[in-house]
Design goal:
Elements lengths: L2 H14 L22 H20 L10 H10 L5 H8 L3 H13 L3 E5 L7 E5 L1 H21 L5 H18 L9
Antiparallel strand pairs: 1-2
Helix pairs in contact: 2-6, 3-6, 4-5
Length: 181
């Protein structure tokens, strides 16, 4: 990527996510210490930035704020009958957080819990008609937001980043379903 392409992409990104730059100190020569070489620092920081940008894109559907709502509705819609424990495993929620999230989604009218016909003690999650409709709209929004947010990377860079992040995710999450790439 040429320097002018990179500058253009950075300018576009800053318009979408204007930085709340401190005005009281000189920061251009700030020493990032060990953070400059830590992947975890950049992963956490980019996670915050992408989450803030996603909130801005999904606010109109009342899915902004907090974590897990979008993942929950999309995964329930794609996997009707998924058990809360399985969902919690893949989106990294503990039992109480998952119960609270499901309760919120039920109150909003997006999901319903049913007793499993094969195992009476187990619960399964299903999208409601309203949940399926909002999932369709969310898929469009999150794809557009992802494309927009990561426009600073070209297609090959995005594919590489996705492959690397998926590799790390899969190495820590047991029983990740195979991808149909």
């Amino acid at each position: 990527m040429s320097p002018s392409d990179l500058a253009r992409r950075r300018s576009e990104a800053s318009k979408r996510n204007p930085a709340k730059t401190p005005k009281t100190i000189a920061y251009r020569h700030l020493d990032f210490d060990v953070f400059a070489s830590l992947l975890s620092f950049y992963v956490r920081t980019v996670n915050l930035l992408v989450s803030q940008d996603l909130d801005a894109h999904t606010r109109s559907l009342h899915f902004a704020g907090g974590t897990g709502k979008i993942s929950t509705i999309l995964l329930v819609d794609a996997n009707p009958g998924i058990r809360p424990s399985v969902l919690a495993h893949f989106i990294r929620k503990d039992r109480s957080a998952m119960a609270k999230l499901i309760s919120q989604m039920e109150k909003a009218g997006y999901v319903e819990q049913r007793v499993s016909p094969s195992e009476r003690r187990a619960r399964e999650l299903y999208p409601t008609q309203s949940g399926r409709a909002v999932a369709r709209r969310l898929r469009q929004l999150v794809k557009a937001q992802d494309d927009d947010f990561f426009a600073v990377l070209d297609g090959k860079e995005q594919a590489t980043l996705l492959a690397l992040l998926r590799k790390v995710y899969e190495s820590y999450i047991d029983m990740v379903p195979l991808q149909d790439d």
